[in-house]
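Morning. Coffee machine broken again, so started the prediction first thing and wrote up yesterday's gels while waiting. Chain of 103 residues, entered below exactly as on the submission form.
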Amino acid sequence: MFKNRTHAVTFRLAESEFEELTKTAVSQGARSLSDFARAAVMGQVALASATGLSREEIENIARRLDAFDLTLKDLKSHVLQSLNGPLQKAQTLKTIPPRRLPH
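Came back before lunch.
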């Protein structure tokens, strides 16, 4: 159901911002740039209202979560290396032919 929209909000974009907006709106299947921009803005409004956090606080949390994610991936890599290290050594020992001792 369509709502009767009576207010207009206008803002300016740099050419690169407009191109990025257009490309993203098309890739997301938006009916129009207005619909896409409205959804993005109202999504931010809803998020701020629901959490009581400012955009800056939300972005800070997102950065911290990204850093945490990288730390977890790094930890996973170290754990896998630790687990595979002894396994690889054992496999290497199996593939090395035994040496004959001189008589």
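The chain has two domains: 9-52, 55-96. Going to sketch it on the whiteboard this afternoon.
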